[in-house]
Protein 1
Amino acid sequence: MTGTRPTSLKELRESGWQSKSVKHELRDNYLAALQSSEPLFPGIVGYDDTVVPEISIAVLAGHDMLFLGEKGQAKSRLMRALVRFLDEYVPYLDLPGCPVHEDPFNPLTRAAKEYVANTPEDQIRIAWWHRTDRYAERLAPGTKFADVIGEIDPAKLAAGTSMAAEDALHFGLIPRMHRGIFAMNEIPELDELIQVGLFNILEERDVQIRGYPIQFDLDVLILFSANPATFNRSGKVIPQLKDRIGSLIQTHYPRERALGIEIMEQEARPDASGVFVPYFMKEIIEQISVSARKSKYVDHASGVSARFSIANYRTMVASARHRGVRLGESPAVPRISDLGHLPTSSLGKLELDLMGSHQMGEKQVLEAIIADAIRTVFEEYVEAHGLEEIADVFSKGVKIEVGDMLPSAEYAKRLKRVPKAWEKAFEVNAGASDAVRASCVEFVLAGLYASDRISRATRHGRMTYET
């Protein structure tokens, strides 16, 4: 492919290649993708009817965009995904030392204009820029004006370059992404001086560094991300900058638990060999995140990332695999007792509401959230399978001890002395293996406990259920 592309300005002109702005280029390729009915954002789940249509309108309108949402709502992934709608390669002037990838037909810098004007077209070298290199991203905290916009280069001044000359300037990321896409994450954390520089670029597409204006038309798509709590706080983002952002794209958490599970499985990508995860265990892991987002103990403004579910899912699977290897069980099947290891992957990911949590620590809040999630999922299975009668077993003095390192065969032995009502527990997940049945039994026991039907005592990782 490389050998077929023009390597000189003369060959490029003869090839019929036409110059486009980056937004025009993006729009044309996006329209082609819409017409072909191909997935627009592969791997992005749950946004087809909400977020994606808004992005489509913004792209077709040629707008710079702000992705507004809480953490873990795929804001950065959506911004990066727009790169696939750029042309695979675009030509640029192969001019050593040039700070930007110049459009061969519309050069911006003085050096590039002089090069094109004074060099025969068959001697003007052309190189090709791949779309994956036409995207740059920056996190706002710690960002300085020189990083994204530019600064006077003291070394060039010392060498005798005039401060009034374009050559004396060091270009920041945005000018260097001319003909590309620049994304700024967490814009409310950006210094006000940089915000002023950004709205000047958004409005005029030119750059001013220490009062020296570079009068050229920057061709760049600018994207932003922010959390609603900080973006809407007075004074965090200057009104002029808000006013110049073309479209605001509001993201959200999965509207249905099944979509959350789909995201969790897609992103966790655990090694599935030797492990079978019952669907109700996947439901509980995702419901823990759902319950955390609704909990009065958790700061709603911060949100609960999808990474919370992903990390917990991996921990649960790892605990099951650990048991499987130690006890020689295959496949290993996650149980409720494996959730006892979730603090390792959960603590630090929840920001507590200081007013709601009072004296509760993060671990206590997590335990309450896990109990709520188990109860929520269990009640759905009670309604579907009539598991209420199992609680009657414990009125006859039955005790059942379980734990994450208890062999599955032990569950089968202990169930021999339990009335047949226990058989209904296996309707939860059809499976003849001892490991699956052990998981079902723990789910029913934990559900009965979470809904205050039986009591539980925990000692050294073992749990005993009774009336």
Protein 2
Amino acid sequence: MSIASFKEPQGTHQTKKATASGWIGSVLEYYDFFIYATAAALVFPQLFFPSTDPTVAIVASLATYGVGYVARPIGALVLGYWGDTHGRKQVLITCMFLMGLSTMAVGLLPTYAQVGVWAPLFLVILRLIQGFAVAGEISGASSMILEHAPFGRRGFFSSFTLQGVQAGQILAAAVFLPLAHYLPKEDFNSWGWRVPFLLSFIVIIVGFIIRREVEETPAFEAVEQQFEAKKAPKIPVVEALQHHWADMLRVVCMSLMNVIPVVATVFGAAYAVQPGYGIGFSKDVYLWIPVLGNIVAVIVIPYVGNLSDKIGRRPPLIVGSLVAGLLSFAYLYAISIHSVPLAIAMSLLMWGVVYQGYNAVFPSYYPELFPTRARVSAMAISQNTGTMITAFLPGLFAYIAPPGSVDVPFTIGCAALGVTVIAAIAALSARETSRIHMSDLGNPNAVPVEAAEYERLRQQAIAQAQAAKA
């Protein structure tokens, strides 16, 4: 038996099925999240939070969107534990049904006019379930794909987790935006907005068919057998916090890179369209910026994932973080000079292309920092904590650069760059993991495979994949 095969868990590696499973799950999770965010802005204020003050209704509606982020750390604890003790497959099926069924239930909710205060209460409960469910999806899917992928190609295959995230948002826009645009307002407000939520049923069926065919990963099964033989306690989150807290803190800091989509689509949209800032862009422009950005990202992500297998995880992540932070100045400046084409071009470059240096790499890098036994828990808790922090950034940005402020591009650009510098420093302080064998992941003292041998094994994996297609 070669050193490579000895260091890689033996068993059935269902790379393609695992990748398809992670991809379709991410599509469902973020299709659901995107349609909720859109509905919260367009129709929920009138249907679930009627008020004589429209500002109060809008704030209350958007607050239910934020509730989903509050539930994430709790979901990370519970679902991370479940994924590390009962398997990646089980936690992913659980996440899919929780998210899909709660989303369908939103589409069936009675409105405030029908049941009074019960309507917003039920809406908040369902949003909490959504946030709980999404907390385990990316960490579970990334771990499953990583553990099924051949050595030397983990970055490429794991990147499809995030390609699914972007594809889900494109699918949501493809369903929601035409309905909002073409249906008469009365029809859209009465039944049209429910259609995207009810269509989650189709994705649940497709996702379940794919996910039930995927076997548990050899890495998880090997570790599970070891722990059962030792009769060791099953508390992976304790192991993660005791022995891997430093890497978890690094992941929290790197996850702050979510500041870039916040600048592109949340604060950037408010700066461009809200009357107080005096820019006066059409709202339609900012409905399409996320769509265009996600289309570009879907194309770019696999190439960046493959690049991370060639040159390592840290270089694209560090460069992507710093350059995206610098481009935030150019993007906000384009808005300030009232240039719609330049603003779109800068958003696509900043978010659709450069940001993918981080976005395409973290699905392989984060789980590679932790051992198999605590992988899902450690990644879920730390990544969702960082993401939750960024959910508060739009409010912070509006506070430090409110309507009427001068030099908004410089102020917010500096803030965004500062956050991306923190992410880059965290990545710089972390160890490189791309050439570490699966059985050694999570070990700070693990010796990476020699570059020449690693490239030989990587090319061998590519050749085997190409031969399988022929």
Protein 3
Amino acid sequence: MIELADQFFVLSKQQILLLMPVAAQPLASVLLSIIPIIGVFATLFALTTVLERKGLGRIQNRLGPNRVGPFGFLQPLADGIKSLTKEDVVPFRTDGVLHFLAPVLVMVAALLAYSVLPLGRNMVALDLDAGVLFFFAVGASTELAVFMAGWSSRNKYAMLGAMRAIAQMISYEIPLILSTVGVLMTAGTLSTTGIVEAQSGYSGLLPNWYVLTPWGFAGFFLFLIAATAEANRSPFDLPEGESEIVAGYFTEYSGFKFAMFFFGEYLGLFAANALAITLFLGGWNSPLAILDWVPSYVWFFAKLMGLIGLSIWVRGTTPRMRSDQLMNFAWKFMLPMSLVNVLAAGLWRFTGHGFLGWFVCGSLVAGSYCWLGVELSTKNSLKKRVYRFAT
């Protein structure tokens, strides 16, 4: 009965395919994988927008959405109708083809990333041997879409916003990828399903998750920070600094095209959080052996909702960084810390998982964190700004 509940969606897909002609089964299998992924994460996007507004409202001591539907939970539906019916204003001098393709490419890149993410046991659309490499490869095309949006608008403010966004994304993409190297070294595979399987089982009462190691704990938070910057979310939302360059690279977008950028940003955030779960939090594995009866996909989405809640909390409680702070933080802290973490992962393999391994790797990670933090703060990079007013 437990196995049936865990494999319900896998078995349902197999039964549906058996009812179809053999020639139609390959196409039907693809559609039966794609349509649920789009439906589930589109629903999660709508739910997250409401929860984020309500969470930010509570943090900022205001109500948030509470008019459309019960407790305001139909607000995403109203926003969708508004986006579909709002006029699509396209400036005369824009490159029409690229202006149209940019938001489409953002969404396509985000959706392709889900094809290699195991959402549960045997629940992965495309089980590639190089799944992690595929994830980062399709994610890199987002930078091209951002440049297309800014350049095709023929607007200097949009172009400036695009260049600044690309500089930020490239700067944080390097530590984002480096933070995963320790996992790939330890698991010995680039397959997302293989990485999850490597974290199965328990050591006493604790699961064999990589986040429960010194290098895994540091790598997990390095990954989350870099992923937040990649998604242009607070406190790294400089590309959309309203008081500086209007609305960044999508200044000249309106209506449904603007909503597609918004949708793609959230899909990218969900995909990055899902990869963090796969790499560091054991994927769909349960945290305790006595809870293995809970379906694997329930654990995966429970972890995902926890990380989404963390991102909402961070957005509501952290101020936006200055441009110099953002770039200094990437190159002077995130990058060297990621390299140190790769060294710690290597030492962990050769020193063993006992006291010696914890002492050596923990000391290396903690010492580097303290040293790099002091170096960064003493060079006026992250010091508190002092405002002076004329008298």
Protein 4
Amino acid sequence: MNEIAAPAVAGAGAKAREACGRTSVLAISTLGFTLMFAVWLMFGVLGIPIRKEFGLSSVQLSWITAVAILNGSIWRLFAGILTDRYGGRKVFTAMLLFTALPAFLVSRATSYEQLLVYAFLVGIAGNSFSVGIAWDSAWYPKDRQGFALGVFGAGNVGASVTKLIGPELILLVPVAGYLGGFVPGGWRFIPFMYAVLLLLMAAAMWLFTPRHDHRPAQGRSLRQMLQPLKRIEVWRFSLYYVVVFGAYVALAAWIPRYYVDVYGLKLAEAGLLTALFIFPASLLRPVGGYFSDRFGARKVMYASFGLLLLATLVLSMPSGHIVVNVAKDVDPRGFRDILHFDMTLWPFTIVLFLVGVAMGIGKAAVYKYIPDYFPDDVGAVGGLVGMLGALGGFFLPPLFAYAENLTGMPQSTFFILFLLSLASAVWMHLTVMGVLQKASPELRDDFERRTATAETKREATT
């Protein structure tokens, strides 16, 4: 009896250790990603005092944010592959250590050119997303992956950290700093603080996650790992991710300036209101993952795109009115103003909150697709999707700036997002229709046939 019980006890112990390791990996990776995301997008708030100190234009400032986003995008594919092959513990820890150096250098920058270089280097932090996605996917079973990846993805809330604490710290820490200037003051204190936190986080990750790691790509060649990238689904998912993540990254960096320039708010107020967009766009990822596990990623994406289209269309409408010429007996002026529209502060904030809701749920749905379609290649596929999606965050801020300069309307930002969402939604719907028509080719071009055929069959059997 004891001989039979011993393997059962050993098996139970192994399952308990696996569950404990799984929980620690998810918790530590989520904390690490939250910090890395805060570092990656810190220029959304720091950009305002940087613009003032260096006398930058809006376009110059947008490029500081853009180059950080660029470097946080281009290595995502390789970061995911490395994680599948060598394990997330090693790759994530190394990335934390590397990011600490350029974060420190940002605090020492003395020119616009130096800021561009250091901002590009510190952008490596954004690639931590692919590492965490692959790492957590390797530890969690398929029926819980949607929720687990949603929890990890909630680390996007790191984008709000600088916006919440940055303005106050900039004011509290004297410009002269401390320890003879070794600890800098003003806006420079923020990247210095992040450099210290990155080193501490690297130590915590190395000490508190399991030494034994899951490595699904161990023993596979690079060619085998890249094979799934030939499939069109990967590129379709990437476009979805441009909409729900790339646009989120761009807006998280862009919206503080929008509040300051359009509504005349102070930086601290702009940061707090921007957080009302970032919180749902980040913290609802677990909800999106749960819904995707339960109802399917496709239904969740339909809902996400629908809400995005409605909200961005409203936000893209410029304030103003239409002037209609009328007879003088109707109006002595000979014209009449109609369709007055004015997007004031709080309606704007509420609709922007809905954009955050749609993006938060949609981000989780996109990454639920990946382990369903490519269970053995989450690192490579998730890395490419993350890379292309985040590249959207690189191209969009300069595009916003150029569109605003061309049209003179800051609302052009949201019209660009409306067109991008529309293109993605149309592609998804055409794909769904193609799948349904392939499953039922007899109904390809006749939407009425199903009912008519059913009635004909009933009549024939009576």
